[in-house]
């Protein structure tokens, strides 16, 4: 009966997301090719092909971890960062053995193409054919929301990284979901603290899909709680390249601040600069994003806002290892925002498996993970018992020119503690 139920759920999910794709809720390129392996699948062995002594000695049944993320599509850069970070986290958390309690870790990677329908198909393959014990992903909130019900249907743990929509650990949550990535409300609390006060007039610019809509709602709630007034909200399409109309409406409204929520390569920063938003007396504030986006933010030097991660900000041994190892493996390149998230998700998985002595039963893992603390490049994270959202440090920063960097550098004002940025419980 359970197998029949699963089949019906998969069919219904596939039909639902075909309809969603037709409606254009998240307008991404569905013509993308699969990952480098040709079928959107890749298996990771012993990092870069080097066999570790501990792996050779591990003789138990493998523990299978599926990574479901964007290797193609609009968020592919985030997916590639996450995979690199996961690999380094696996090495760190297992002391190079890539095994837990004598059981080797096998990693299977699948490409969602940043398309919710493809995400469902690939997740089903990982559960049905590969029989993964734990699923990790995805880069897109749309992909992740599409896959969440499958974790409950197949009764397997899913660690969400880095998708941020509040609904993932809110209205769409189920007991098998744990999130190492921060959510929109955590961003919003940090962003509102930077600019909102009694009577402040603020406009919001965010993409028109789950990430942007949830982020805007969470920011509005946090800002209004501090006495601010939201005077305009603009939601361009996810793949928009022309922001002229949106920005003109913001200029016409004349807010004191414009709070921008954005992810992806098609950022609005150049358009905001070209249309002279700040010269018109509107102060832009945002979360300082990944390094690629920082290169486009020269016009925002001096801005005070927040960031989730920049490799220069944390001061701990895990981050030191990540920076050193990443530069060694990737031609001197520093780790980025989603690399740190990938490492955190690997360390959470290994900490849980260590606590269960390698037992992959989902109910056993769930009990071990509720309230579990684990180390990450950002310091200690804790899975909140009520909704399994990881409470974590965020950083209040100012963007500054720096002679050693060819992009505006996020410089620490202060750490925002996990308690300070704890989001509302919405599940």
Please describe what this structure looks like.
It is a single chain. The chain is built from 13 helices and 17 strands. The chain is α/β, with parallel strands linked by helices and about 425 residues long. The protein has two domains: about 260 residues, Rossmann fold; about 150 residues, 3-Layer(aba) Sandwich (Rossmann fold). The strands form three sheets. Strands 1, 2, 3, 4, 5, 6 and 7 form a seven-stranded mixed sheet that branches. It has a seven-stranded mixed sheet with strand order 9-8-10-11-12-16-17, sandwiched between helices. A three-stranded antiparallel sheet has the order 13-14-15, covered by helices on one side. Helix 10 links the parallel strand 11 and strand 12. Helix 3 packs across helix 11, helix 3 packs across helix 12 and helix 6 crosses helix 7. The two termini are about 30 Å apart. Pfam families: Peripla_BP_6 (PF13458).
Quick summary:
With 427 residues, the chain is an alpha/beta fold.
The overall strand count is: 17
Mean pLDDT over the full residue set: 87
Residues in β-strands, percent: 15-25%
CATH homologous superfamily heading of the largest domain:
Response regulator
Structural domains: how many: 2
Based on helices, strands and strand pairing, what is the structural class? Answer: alpha/beta
Cα radius of gyration in angstroms = 21 Å
Element layout with pairings:
Blueprint: H1 2-23, E1 41-44, H2 53-57, E2 63-69, H3 76-93, E3 99-100, E4 103-111, H4 116-128, E5 134-137, H5 141-154, E6 157-160, E7 177-179, H6 184-195, E8 201-205, H7 210-225, E9 229-234, H8 244-253, E10 257-260, H9 269-274, E11 283-288, H10 291-294, E12 304-307, H11 317-329, H12 337-355, H13 362-369, E13 373-376, E14 379-383, E15 390-391, E16 394-400, E17 409-416
Helix pairs in contact: 1-4, 1-5, 3-11, 3-12, 4-5, 6-7
